[in-house]
Amino acid sequence: MIKSLLIANRGEIACRIIRTARDMGVRTVAVYSDADAKALHVRQADEAVHIGPSPAAESYLVGEKIIAAAKETGAEAIHPGYGFLSENADFAQAVIDAGLIWVGPKPDSIRAMGLKDAAKTLMDEAGVPTTPGYIGDNQDAKFLAKQADKIGYPVLIKAVAGGGGKGMRKVDKPGDFADSLTSCQREAKASFGNDIVLIEKWIESPRHIEVQVFGDSHGNVVHLFERDCSLQRRHQKVIEEAPAPGMDEKTREAVCASAVRAAKAVDYEGAGTIEFIADASGGLRADKIWFMEMNTRLQVEHPVTEEITGVDLVEWQLRVASGEKIPLKQEELSINGHAIEARLYAEDPATGFLPSTGRLERFHIPDVGRIDTGVEEGANVSPYYDPMIAKIIACAHDRNRAVEDLKETLDGTAVWPVKSNAGFLYRLLNDRDFLEGSMTTGLIASRGDDLVPETEPTSDMLQTAALHLQREYVGLEQKSLTGFRLNAESRDTVLLGTDNGPIETRIPDDWIDDIWSSSATPTAALVSAKGVVFAVGQYQPHGKGAHAASDGAILAPMPGRVISVDVGQGDAVIKGQKLLTLEAMKMEHTLTAPFDGTVAELSVEAGAQVEVEAVLAIVEVKEE
After folding, report:
1. Domains of the chain by start residue, with CATH
2. Per-10-residue mean pLDDT for the chain, 624 residues long?
3. Helix or strand holding residue 524 (H, E)
4. Which of 112, 222, 228, 519 has the fewest Cβ atoms within 10 Å of its own Cβ atom?
């Protein structure tokens, strides 16, 4: 058995691996960048090694530094987690060549499944059904456009080396194809170093079904049943569950058997996932479920499989990497109960889900169910990495109970001042189609702003805040209820300050006279419900500086790099027209004109690094 393990990753997955390794008596070594010097995974590991600056390209993606850290600390093996170098066959081979144990599939297996076009060809040969589309070496834009015409719109452009929703675009009509292709290729090149794409038929009522597989070096391959990952936003999974709602035993057997054949076709070892797309317009049927791709690593959503099977997949990974056989045979595996996972991201639904960064002054998740996280209260959310800060998992005897437990946990979740998607997740769990198990991968997009939580506190929340502060501060010298101003025209309301400006609320008559204070000490109460948090306190009218979005200033919503500028100073623009594109947290964010007008100022050029709220351009209103 492996005695010492270096984890070539960060955040919640590093902490997750450390937890199992500690239980198995395995010594752990963490690696960290400048931004992660005080991170939770660094403190939890037995030893930690600094590997470079904050950008992943200079630290977590530099294989030589990671292997050197393993050598330096005497680690026997390297576990890549997911993301970063987890599916990099060259890195896996370098680990093996250095005389270390690679906790993952063989490099040849990674290569075989790493490119979506080659993988689909291989699956066709293995008798695994694949999605209709174009796979080929001809990457000429006009040729690809013709292939899309033949397939029939809508189509999906997908990077062959992609994953996590990156390098992927749905195209609804021919006129959008060229721009979507360019954007997809650019994002794929930046994320994976490979801009080759394939084109698939877009399935109109799609469900994302995936099967957890596991192989060992003795020729054994088993499956651990399926997961449903249909709830996605921009191809990024948001909520996952196991087993899949509406999956009957006959269909389950067929799909899981296909997954095992797929794994055997590449002589697979370790944990892997076979992803399928299902046309669910007539329910889940084996003849309407097609192979999409294989992820040759542990998945973000692996906890739901662990919860329904009772298996620790990381323990299995370490045992199989040590040369042992898979601990259980297929007939010894069974489904027990239902599990559901929500991904908690540091992002703001009110601003189009732009990632949110900063210090977690408040980070609370009720201690029920299972929480996998790599941060804690007081930690900083960095702009350099993926914005996921936790996974919240609920498991119960049936789906309805598991969903209710997850909703209860989200209801009590509070993240502040960093924004989170907890309120969005809570609303999503109340969606009718989701509750009926009839969701598709397009559900979130189809709901639009209906899933975006309130941007202002409710009257109940405001009264809760006022009452809390009244009880907390009345009678305390220099701290008695700053943050409140009584409305001059009425003695039964109070003017409270919130992130969005002043809000007036009624308060109980029996303590109205007790809450006024002349103290200038800033005071605020945090109030939350259904995953949404507001800070309520002193109202002080103030300006927003020289520019705000309302006056035509185009502000950087977060730190990032300008990757394209599509207009010039003096250009006439129309409302919604693309002005420039900002890349941050591995994703592209398009900034558009707020109204018809003229580009009066242009402050940046492609390649520029910008800070949050930097003025990138100013659009002046078009004169009549």
Report:
1. 4-103 (3.40.50.20), 113-131+206-336 (3.30.470.20), 133-201 (3.30.1490.20), 339-444 (3.30.470.20), 459-537 (no CATH), 549-621 (2.40.50.100)
2. 98 98 98 97 98 95 98 98 95 98 97 83 92 89 96 92 81 96 92 89 92 98 98 94 97 97 97 95 92 94 98 98 98 98 95 88 90 95 92 98 97 91 97 96 93 82 66 38 34 49 50 32 66 67 41 79 92 91 75 90 90 86 69
3. strand 524-529
4. 519
551-to-227, 302, 455, 556, 620 alpha-carbon distances in Å: 47, 47, 21, 15, 8
Strand partners, 561: 583, 609
Q: How many degrees, rounded to 5, is the angle at CA 134 between CA 133 and CA 136?
A: 155
Q: What single-letter DSSP state applies at residue 173?
A: S
As given in the structure block, the two tokens for residue 90 are 């060259």
Distance CA 328, CA 264 (A): 17
Strands 615-621, 370-373: pairing is unpaired
| Residues in CB range of 587: below 8 A, 6 or more apart | 166, 187, 355
Distance (Å) of CA 513 to CA 481, 520, 523: 12, 18, 18
Contact in structure between 8 and 59 (CB atoms under 8 Å): no
Query: Strand pairing partners for 597?
Result: 573, 621
DSSP state of 529: E
Phi, psi angles (nearest 5°) of residue 413:
-80, 135
Residue 369 CA to residue 406 CA, distance in Å, equals 8
Tell me, yes or no, if 111 is annotated catalytic: no
Residue among 226, 306, 299, 280 at smallest CA distance from 258 = 226
Run of H or E including 275: strand 270-279
Structure tokens at 299: 């998945």
Cα separation, 605 vs 594, whole angstroms: 20
Q: Residue 356 has what DSSP assignment?
A: -
Spatial contact of 288 and 279, defined as CB atoms under 8 Å apart: yes
Integer Cα distance of 314 and 20 in angstroms: 7
- Residue written as token pair 């659009």: 619
Going from the C-alpha of 17 to that of each of 30, 131, 298, 555, the distances in angstroms are 10, 34, 11, 39
12: exposed, middle or buried (Cβ count in 10 Å: 0-12, 13-18, 19+)? buried
Strands 4-7 and 47-52: unpaired
Q: From CA 343, how far away is CA 349, in angstroms rounded?
A: 14
At residue 138, the 3 state secondary structure works out as coil
Q: What does the CA dihedral 465, 469, 470, 471 come to, rounded to 10 degrees?
A: 110
